[in-house]
Write a structure and sequence with these properties.
With 394 residues, the protein is an alpha/beta fold. Helix content is 32%, strand content 16%. Helix 1 packs across helix 2, helix 7 packs across helix 8 and helix 9 packs parallel to helix 10. Bound molecules: adenosine monophosphate.
Length: 394
Amino acid sequence: MYNKVTVEDLDVKGRKVLVRCDFNVPLDENGNITDDTRIKGAMPTIEYLVNNGARVILCSHMGKPKGEPVPSLSLAPVAKSLSEKLGKDVVFAADDNVVGDNAKAAVAAMKDGDVVLLENTRYRKEETKNIEDFSKDLASLADLFVNDAFGTAHRAHCSNVGVTEFLKPAAAGYLIQKEIEFLGNAVNNPVRPLVAILGGSKVSSKISVIENLLKKVDKLIIGGGMAYTFFAAQGKTVGTSLLEEDYIDYAKKMLSEAGDKIVLPVDTVVAKEFANDAESKVVEGNIPDGWMGLDIGSKTIELFKDALKDAKTVVWNGPMGVFEMPNFAKGTNVIAQMLADLDATTIIGGGDSVAAVNQAGLADKMSHISTGGGASMEFLEGKDLPGIVALTDK
Ligand code: AMP
């Protein structure tokens, strides 16, 4: 398990601290930020550094400019938003080569507590290839490094991995620290019973997650479209439901190895077609010809509730049905509510289940909502995340 130096372990007063943030926010056609969640998420680390007299140099990528300056992907709007949130001027260093004359002059003029934001790190072609020149350029600006960009922690780029070769110590910011604490501990060092809930469309995209979690959990609840490949493995018919024929044997193997650890739906809300207003009914066991499963039924909800009742740690990834359609969102919403009511550590492991919990208005009732899509999945797969591995050990 990771035990990394954190931002609070650093002596930052008067030091230049390069902070890799995730400011990859959506913009409208006029360059206005339409959702500032990620900027808000970075504020605790930035505020801590400012309040402790560091000279804070922020960097991030935005979108995919593919190694060249693309004005519509400039971080200039982020500097404006940060200035408003911090209540102080954030100097934007508008260099097409990210570490250019503007950045160097801005950093040279910094006083303790000042904040400078560099241009989109992906304006440099070296960034995503982790080529040393750019890592050295970034490191040349600062004395210390903090990584707070969990969303890119599964990638080895200059601004999160390469730079740590030249700037030590390299510490975890609050966001990464929280991901390690919750998502990492949930899987590797959980308070038991640990129950995982997996849903979503495909078995094939979650094989590594299933395999890793099966080794660690006390129970694995499977819902959503992926359940029907397991139905087929049990010899049930699935009608026109999602089915990955190539994975039926795999599902059989998982079921025989996992014994009663795997909990599958016992009834299904089925519909005539993939539409919110399609004719629908609930069936137990086999799904009849011409019908497709779009949500879990009420007996399954009770079964899952029972499997969850003593849980002390729960990790959830993937909806229980087509939650985007109100008529097939019940299973997902009820699971979200069950987690909200549980006396347990509840972790929403990225992707569509985060959207589902937000849609149900229950986000603040969960212990932790992971901020990274791909990075969260790789954590659940038990893979090492390069952006975390590269940080200095305690
Ligand atoms: P994933 O990205 O694999 O987590 O899948 C999320 C998607 O799975 C969502 O868009 C859901 O609508 C979809 N999904 C969940 N259950 C079903 C189902 N029974 N049939 C079709 N799609 C489903």
